[in-house]
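Hi V.,

You were right to ask for the full record rather than a summary. Here it is.
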Amino acid sequence: MFLSYFLTFLISMVPLIELRGAIPYGTLVADPALPVLNAYIVSIIGNMLPVPFIFLFARKILVWGSDKKHIGRFFSWCLKKGHNGGEKLKKNAGRGLYIALIIFVGIPLPGTGAWTGTLAASILDMDFKKSTAAVMLGVLLAGIIIGLLSLLGVNLLK
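Predicted structure:
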């Protein structure tokens, strides 16, 4: 049972996969399978654990690496992409930037999770507390959506 919890937790911390993959893993694949609520809680914790580190250090690491020989081109691309996307989001969202961040993180599509949302918030110099709260609300929303879909999957497999 511990292994099911542990792997669900670890999967929820992986970029791009996050809780979108962890909840279905925990409820549909893990042996023994976890109850949906347990997989949801473990995945939320695992998905949120890297958020402060991403916010505080990812941009600094990208800036540091942008002039390095082998990684500079990719790091510069990430910074430019994040900056351009962030500016576009800022322009379209106006005063509702934090609401837009909640929705961006909360819609469970590839590339729209806590990692990407937090990096965008960092690049935009958004407030740490407000953006972390927005990412948390988005993660909770995505978890509810994926949890409901996993529940449907569990019921279809019975």
